[in-house]
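Progress note, sequence design subtask.
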């Protein structure tokens, strides 16, 4: 329908293109990037993100591993939980992914 009406108004076509792009980007961001299916156990199957820049870009949603380990902890407590778990993650051999600093 958007192609048929394109000569009248391109708005529907732009809408369809944006919806298709969103349907590809959302699974990439929520599934592929934070998870590692080749990880040997639950600690290595979810990536560990840290850093101020990445935290700003991700709107404080960089605590995905902590969310998997402790799903009942509310979002506003994730930074505190992360600080408490950082030494455990380091001992386990997890290397955090950082965006600059």
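Output:
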């Amino acid at each position: 329908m958007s192609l048929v009406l394109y000569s009248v108004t391109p708005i529907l076509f732009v809408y369809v293109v944006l919806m298709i792009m969103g349907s590809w980007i959302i699974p990439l961001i929520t599934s592929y990037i934070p998870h590692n299916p080749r990880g040997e156990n639950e600690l290595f199957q979810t990536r560990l993100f840290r850093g101020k820049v990445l935290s700003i870009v991700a709107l404080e949603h960089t605590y995905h591993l902590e969310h998997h380990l402790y799903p009942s902890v509310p979002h506003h407590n994730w930074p505190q939980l992360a600080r408490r778990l950082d030494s455990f993650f380091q001992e386990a051999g997890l290397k955090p992914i950082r965006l600059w600093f």
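The radius of gyration is 19 Å. Work on this subtask will continue into the next period as scheduled.
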